[in-house]
Specification:
Elements: H1 3-41, H2 48-51, H3 61-88, H4 97-104, H5 108-112, H6 130-138, H7 146-156, E1 160-164, H8 171-184, E2 208-211, H9 215-229, E3 236-239, H10 245-255, E4 259-262, H11 264-272, E5 283-286, H12 289-294, H13 298-307, E6 316-321, H14 326-335, E7 341-345, E8 360-366, H15 369-381, E9 389-392, H16 396-407, E10 413-416, H17 422-433, E11 439-442, E12 457-460, H18 467-474, E13 484-490, H19 499-508, H20 515-518, H21 534-541, H22 545-555
Parallel strand pairs: 1-6, 1-7, 2-4, 2-5, 3-4, 5-6, 8-13, 9-11, 9-12, 10-11, 12-13
Helix pairs in contact: 1-3, 3-4, 3-22, 7-8, 8-9, 11-13
Length: 556
């Protein structure tokens, strides 16, 4: 075969391939157009490009290529919309995929209006007795916080409540006051349940239990319980680790409290000694539930469930948490009544993603270890005399070094960490709360739960160990409607893998990001500093809470 013959054969082969390709493109374009037309009948708008993308089989080659490209793009878009719709519907059922996809595209306005339950904007709407209302006014509160406004109506209606909100949002009174009201009015789940068995009258048997992950938070809750329980004659007791067990048991027997606040480990110790009965405990509150699981208290929580009244109808559970990841949802299911649970989501955190408090101004300072003391000195010298400062360091040794160094310079300073005895920690906290000391240096033991009013500044002398710890550290300021500032030392030798998460957290809160941090925004993040995909979070935020939860579960 000659050269001319070979060239002609190649040309023919190319022509055949071109014709075949054009035919396939035309067929693909028509198929996608038909599929999208079917979807539009269910309520989703079909992209106009698809209708215009199916050319004649005899059209020009350029048109065929354009049609094929448009068809593939439309098919990919359709598949993505279908996947989003399936996630929103919880993996199948519950309406057409097109309708769910349309809901997902509703935008932030739909998310803002997603809450459909009752919401109280004033204290007068709540049925609390006059002495309780007076106590709220005396404490300086003028209206319910968002979490209170939504959780109170549901809790007082007898429903179990899942409340997901950042720290410093008024959660403590969000769960205490409804329980106090139901106790004082005799509105006990299940009609009151069983009485203590014969021979066990001396064993305290509270009506309500509040579980807290740390003794500091337990003490804080107890303080509020005493303050706002007094007008209703609600007696309470607090038990936690690090103190003498027999003394706590003796106090329980003497007080015979209607409400017990406890840490999980110490509660189980007391239950095993048969010094406390939960047989008549009809109200169960878990505060900072996610933190309890982080600390490994799941076995203790199972032990507590086993000691409660066996019928879920005989108890009400209020489940408060700062995050809502899969592990927390799983444990919540063991406490909550199916079909009798109200969901309250406050803020933009979703699927375990934490949101930094926007009332806190975040500032970042580049500092290597040998520069930190000098830069901290400059920051403290520049603060107002009325400033109240919490400084976080990662080790007990660093805490003591900072406290000793700056105490010697004349600042009134206290330290809090795990090596201190409980009475020493209590004394340090008391000095800081009373403003006798203006600076508290602490490990992360103080990062969650403590509600210390008037903290103006948080300084991260050492970078937090993970995203969650960072958000909760800076949440010690900017609470109860006040503004605050968080200053974080960023060490280029150790903290580069934190940068992508720090940049995202700061930007999401509308904060300025310094150039030395911004240049590592696209860098590799560590597992501890991994931030959930922003596109996924944005898509979930457009859904109402019930669909948001189903979509999050489907994606796990």
């Amino acid at each position: 075969m000659g050269k001319h013959d070979r060239d002609e054969t190649d040309a023919e082969r190319k022509a055949r391939k071109k014709a075949k390709k054009e035919k396939k493109a035309a067929a693909a374009g028509g198929a996608v157009e038909g599929r999208m037309r079917t979807r539009s009948m269910d309520g989703a708008e079909a992209p106009a490009v698809v209708a215009a993308a199916a050319p004649d089989a005899a059209g020009a080659s350029a048109d065929a290529k354009a049609a094929e490209k448009a068809a593939k793009k439309a098919a990919k878009k359709a598949a993505k919309a279908e996947a989003k719709a399936a996630a929103a519907a919880g993996g199948g059922g519950g309406g057409s995929g097109a309708a769910a996809a349309a809901a997902a595209a509703g935008g932030a306005a739909a998310a803002a209006d997603a809450f459909t339950g009752e919401e109280w904007s004033t204290f007068s709407q709540a049925p609390f007795a006059a002495p309780v209302q007076a106590a709220l006014s005396e404490a300086g509160f003028t209206a319910p916080s968002p979490i209170q406004a939504r959780a109170w109506p549901a809790a007082l209606a007898g429903k179990d409540v899942i409340a997901v909100a950042k720290t410093g949002s008024g959660k403590t009174l969000g769960f205490l006051l409804p329980v106090f009201h139901r106790i004082t009015t005799g509105d006990i789940p299940g009609g009151g349940g069983a009485a203590p068995s014969a021979g066990h009258e001396r064993v305290p048997s509270p009506l309500a239990l509040v579980l807290s992950p740390t003794r500091e938070l337990a003490i804080q809750i107890h303080r509020e319980c005493v303050k706002f329980g007094a007008p209703s004659a609600i007696s309470s007791a607090c038990i936690y680790g690090g103190t003498n067990v027999p003394e706590q048991i003796a106090s329980l027997r003497k007080a015979k409290p209607r409400v017990v606040i406890a840490t999980p480990g110490r509660l189980c110790d007391v239950l095993e000694r048969k010094a406390l009965s939960l047989a008549c405990c009809h109200f169960v509150i878990l505060d900072e539930a996610d933190r309890m699981l982080d600390m490994g208290f799941e076995p203790q929580l199972k032990q507590v469930v086993a000691a409660l009244p066996p019928r879920q109808a005989d108890r009400q559970t209020l489940f408060f948490t700062a995050t809502w990841p899969k592990v927390v949802r799983r444990v919540a299911a063991t406490f909550l009544r199916e079909g009798e649970t109200a969901e309250v989501f406050i803020g933009d955190g979703v699927d375990g993603e934490l949101e930094a408090n926007k009332a806190v101004r975040q500032t970042f300072v580049e500092a290597q270890d040998d520069e930190k003391d000098r830069k901290l000195y400059g920051i403290l010298c520049g603060l107002d005399e009325a400033a109240s400062v919490v400084i976080f360091a990662n080790t007990k040794r660093r805490v003591e070094n900072v406290a000793r160094t700056f105490g010697a310079e004349g600042w009134k300073i206290v330290s809090v960490h795990g090596d201190k005895a409980q009475h020493e920690r209590d004394a340090s906290l008391a000095r800081f709360v009373s403003k006798d000391a203006t600076i508290m240096v602490a490990t992360d033991v103080a990062a969650r739960g403590l509600d210390i009013k008037g903290v103006t500044h948080v300084i991260n002398f050492d970078m937090a160990r993970d995203v969650e710890s960072y958000v909760h550290r800076i949440g010690r300021t900017g609470r109860a409607g006040e503004l605050g500032e968080a200053i974080t030392f960023w060490n280029p030798d150790y903290d580069k893998d934190c940068s992508p998460a720090l940049v995202k957290i700061a930007k999401d809160a509308g904060q300025e990001v310094p150039p030395f941090l911004a240049k590592y925004e696209k860098g590799k993040a560590s597992k501890q500093w991994k931030v959930a995909d922003a596109e996924k979070a944005a898509a979930l935020l457009t859904l109402p809470p019930s669909q948001r939860r189903a979509a999050a579960q489907a994606s796990d």
